[in-house]
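Changelog note: in this version the structure field was regenerated for every chain. One regenerated record is shown below for reference.
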Amino acid sequence: YGDFLNVNKGILTVDVTLPVSFFIESTEEEIIAEAKENGVTETVVNEDGSVTYTMSKSKYKEMMKEMGDSVLSTIDEIVNSEDYTSIKDISYNKDFTEFDVKVNRQQYEEGFDGFAIFGLVIGSTYYSAFDGKSGEDLQIIFNMIDETTGEVGQMPIFNASDSVWFNFISGLPTAQKSLHQQLAVKGAWKS
C-alpha cells in the first residue's frame, strides 16, 4: 500500500508516477494539457491508467517547495485558529515526517482538536511520498506534548503501509472510525 506513487530522481529530470485513482474523472487529453500547462516536460498515460510525469529537477524542486509551503500554511492555520484552542504550538523536522505538538492536555483529551491534525497528516504524507518515500519509509510521527508537564502522548505512527490509513487517505470512509481512535490519545501519556 505504501507505493501509491513512485518517484525516480535522475541526474537532470525526475519521473513521478501517480496511480489511476488520481485521475478517475480526467481524460487523457485533460491530463496531458494540464501537465504541459504546469511545465511538465513529458506525460505518459500508462496501460494501467497510472500517469508518469517527467519534469526538470528545477520544476520538481518548485513543486516540492509549493507542497512544503502548503504544510507550513496548515500548521499556521491550526496554531492560530480559534477553533483548536488546545493546540498551542507545532514544530517539525525539515522533511515533515515528525511533529512535536504542544497541547493543553486536558482540553485536548476532552475535545476534538485532534481532527485538526488530520489535514497535517494528509499534507505531510503527500509531501513525503512526492519526496520519494514509500512503504515502511513513508511514516508520519506526531509527539503530543503536554505544555505544562512536558509529558509526551503516544500517538500511533501514520504509515502508508497500513491498509487502514492508506484506505482513508485514498478517500474510503470505512477508516474514519479508526482515524478518530488514533487521534484521540486519551490515557496514552508518559513522562
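Spot check on this record: Helices lie at 28-37, 57-80, 105-110, 116-130, 163-169, 176-183. Residues 57-80 form the longest helix (24 residues).
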